Amino acid sequence: MLRTLLSFFVVMLILCALVYPFALNTFAKFIFPYQSSGSLVDKEGHVTLDISKAVGSKLLGQEFTKPYFLHSRISAVNYNTSEINQSSVSSGGFNYAMSNPALKERIQKDLQKFLDENSQISKEQIPLDLLSASGSGLDPHISLQAALVQIPRITQYSKLSKEELEKIIQENTESKFLGIFGEEKVNVLAVNIAIAKVINKE
């Protein structure tokens, strides 16, 4: 009986931990090469399988600090980057309880940072998603309101007009799923690629 159990354990371990993941990964790379490689895009906004040409992922957010770029949501994991130990990257949120003083402290700190960077905006104008982190900390999108509220700062530093920026944002706004589910959302990387392309042409 023990020998049978051990044999079954070994066979299932090989099938489930080695054969199945390898077969699934191989199948995915063959059928969906772009998606299975991380949905990478290059500086022109085109899909790419070459990681050396990639500037980001369509599905994974990243931090933007330049004042002429659209800024992403707050990330508890700093969008999977770590200057100390690259192996420590992960995903996740802050998970602060409403009663935790650290939550209020974190919000006040991020609120002040946003106001310092966007002096033309009052705190009442700041959309909620710009002060809250997503559950994964890797959200590539922000709300349409969160994108539009950043236009005055981007206009100041990029020298692009308000109309040009509104057009770029609208072109990179994803509609509600089936027209009724979810909310309109803006892909931050796509907007910033479009901004960079216009700036470099001038």
Explain what you see.
With 202 residues, the protein is mainly α. Helices cover 44% and strands 7% of the residues. It has seven helices and five strands; from the N terminus they run H-H-E-E-H-E-H-H-H-E-E-H. The strands form two sheets. A three-stranded antiparallel β-sheet has the order 3-5-4. The protein starts with a helix and ends with a helix. The mean pLDDT is 85.
Short description:
This protein is mainly alpha-helical and 202 residues long. The protein has helices at residues 2-31, 33-36, 101-117, 144-148, 151-158, 162-171, 188-201, and strands at 40-42, 54-57, 141-143, 173-174, 185-187. The chain is 44% helix and 7% strand.
Primary descriptors:
7 helices, 202 residues, mainly alpha, globular
* Tally of DSSP helical segments: 7
User: How do the helices and strands follow one another from N- to C-terminus?
Assistant: HHEEHEHHHEEH
- Evaluate the radius of gyration: 21 Å
Biggest β-sheet: count, sense, barrel?
A: 3 strands, antiparallel
Proportion in β-strands: 5-15%
Specify the structural class.
mainly alpha
Please, what is the oligomeric state?
single chain
Numbering strands along the chain, what is their spatial order in the largest sheet? Answer: 3-5-4
Q: Can you give the mean pLDDT? A: 85
What is the terminal-to-terminal distance? 77 Å
Principal-axes shape call: globular
Uncertain ranges: none
| Helical fraction | 40-55%
How many strands?
5
Ordered list of secondary-structure elements with their pairings:
Layout: H1 2-31, H2 33-36, E1 40-42, E2 54-57, H3 101-117, E3 141-143, H4 144-148, H5 151-158, H6 162-171, E4 173-174, E5 185-187, H7 188-201
Antiparallel strand pairs: 1-2, 3-5, 4-5
